[in-house]
Structure formats: structure tokens, C-alpha cells
């Protein structure tokens, strides 16, 4: 299964990654500070927990890297190419 990996020490929340994803599995956070996977699209619950525990409510950079197992990712790498800060990467299945 592909891994969608966010580095929250680099992400600025501009949402370029979510805008280009052809299968719409990424979204901006409610506070518009981050991007994240859509919760229902993530297979490993611990990744969701990690995001809400350490990242969601923060306004500052967070030294956390989260590996999300996302079965619907088609591994097009568009998000990687669109990100201006190398904050998202894909590990193909
Ligand atoms: S494009 Fe990069 S910096 Fe922008 S929200 Fe996505 S991961 Fe974060
Ligand atoms: S690799 Fe493609 S399908 Fe997968 S999250 Fe990135 S933009 Fe979406």
C-alpha cells in the first residue's frame, strides 16, 4: 500500500498538494495551517491519532513526520511535484 508522508516541520498549509490530487484524498486543516489526509482514507489509525495529538491544533512548525497508509492513492506523485517545500512525499507500494 502506498504511504503518503507529511513532514510537519516543512508544511506551510498552502494546500497545493490537496488541489492537485486527482482522487481527492487530501485536505486542508480546519485552522488552515496544515494539509492532511482525509481521515476516512487513512488505513492506519495510529497516523490519524499522531496528527490530532501533535499537529492539528498547533500554529507553529512541528517536528513530526507522519506516514499515512492510503489505499486509494494512485501514486501519481502530483502532490510531491506541487509542494514548494518538499513537505510531502510518496513511498510507492
Ligand atoms: S503543498 Fe506542501 S507545504 Fe503545501 S500544504 Fe501540501 S505538503 Fe504542505
Ligand atoms: S500521489 Fe497522487 S493520488 Fe497519491 S496523494 Fe499524491 S496526488 Fe494524491
Automatic annotation (TrEMBL):
SUPFAM superfamilies: 4Fe-4S ferredoxins. One of its GO terms (molecular function) is oxidoreductase activity. Residues 1-31, 62-93 form the 4Fe-4S ferredoxin-type domain. It holds the Pfam family Fer4_10. Coiled coil: none annotated. PROSITE patterns: 4FE4S_FER_1, 4FE4S_FER_2. This is 4Fe-4S ferredoxin-type domain-containing protein.
Amino acid at each position: 500500500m502506498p504511504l503518503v508522508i507529511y513532514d510537519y516541520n516543512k508544511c506551510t498549509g498552502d494546500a497545493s498538494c490537496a488541489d492537485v490530487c486527482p482522487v481527492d484524498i487530501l485536505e486542508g486543516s480546519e485552522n488552515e495551517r496544515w494539509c492532511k489526509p482525509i481521515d476516512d482514507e487513512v488505513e492506519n489509525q495510529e497516523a490519524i491519532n499522531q496528527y490530532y495529538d501533535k499537529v492539528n491544533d498547533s500554529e507553529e512548525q512541528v517536528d513530526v513526520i507522519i506516514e499515512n497508509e492510503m489505499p486509494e492513492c494512485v501514486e501519481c506523485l502530483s502532490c510531491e511535484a506541487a509542494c514548494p517545500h518538499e513537505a510531502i512525499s510518496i513511498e510507492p507500494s
